Amino acid sequence: MNKILVTGASGQIGSELVPALRAKYSDENVIAGWRRKPLTDEVAVGGPSVHIDVTNRAEVEKVVKSIKPDYIYHLSSILSASAELNRQAAYAVNFEGVFNVLEAAVANKTARVVIPSSIGAFGPETPRIAPNDTIQKPTGLYGISKVFGELMGNYYYSATGVDVRGVRLPGIISWKVEPAAGTTDYAVAIFYGAILECRYTCYLGPDTRLPMMYMPDAVNSLIGVAEADLGDSRHRADFNVNAVSFTPSELAAVIKKRMPEFEMTYEVDPLRQAIADSWPDALDDSVAREEWGWSPQFELATMVEDMFTNLTKKLKG
Ligand code: AKB
């Protein structure tokens, strides 16, 4: 493989996926695409970068034509809570952005495009442990855009030959870059609260169970699905991947074990609570395990330990 373009490279996932791809395929072959938010120093100095506004069709065409990537990881996305507050931006980025990237991939013969989906692609009628193939019917704009991305991916694969792939990611927990206005962000913010103030006020209720994943597993799932030999599998852009599943009070209890003085209080935000209540508790990822060998490495306790170690270093030196 010669070149990989990553859109949304300054976001929570892009900031860690780009260095992982560069370590694997060499620095100069992985181009970090960004728009407004600056790239982290690690990504900015570690290899090439390019400005790409995925809502601008002409710019997407120009960038893809000049780089001629073999793979595109299309990460640009407005997350769930933000999407409800700014439907216009969410429509432009999450719907038109996907279309622009897929059309540019067809025109420039990009072999593969990876478009992450999300637990947001499910809704209140989905079983609490979501099977891979089940009723989806999300109630939020973000989730609708994720179903759009999955269906477009499967359609572009059969209609144009561009091999579009994706995994349904749970809430992602990481210490390098914070998520931007999603519903699962509490599971990152709680560590900042614990380390800086020994306390955290959670905007979801104590018993809100959601699927979550530590960043190294998320990065592995994206690279894993991109490189898998999928043969003629009918799944491509719509694989469930699961790791851990917990409630705010369960996460607080694990943190309290490590930091007995930690205190958690609750002030429920109705918008994010409603979104969280519409999502499943966990995902059945047996299809990804069987078809391309997916398996996560981090459990709740090992993730909490690693978060504490790295975030403490980052915040307190
Ligand atoms: C969000 O909360 O919006 C995201 C997601 C689960 O896709 N983290």
State the shape: globular
Proportion of residues in β-strands:
15-25%
Full CATH superfamily name of the largest domain = NAD(P)-binding Rossmann-like Domain
How do the strands of the widest beta sheet line up side by side?
Answer: 3-2-1-4-5-8
Quote the average pLDDT.
97
Q: What string, H for helix and E for strand, traces the elements in order?
A: EHEHEHEHHEEEHEEEHEEHEEHEHEHH
Q: Distance N terminus to C terminus? A: 38 Å
Q: Helical residue percent?
A: 40-55%
Question: What is the compact description of this entry?
Answer:
With 317 residues, the protein is an alpha/beta fold. It has helices spanning 14-25, 41-46, 57-67, 80-85, 87-107, 141-160, 186-197, 215-227, 248-258, 270-278, 286-292, 300-316, and strands spanning 4-7, 30-34, 49-51, 71-74, 112-114, 117-118, 129-130, 163-165, 167-169, 171-173, 199-202, 210-214, 239-240, 244-246, 263-266, 282-283. It is globular and about 55 Å long.
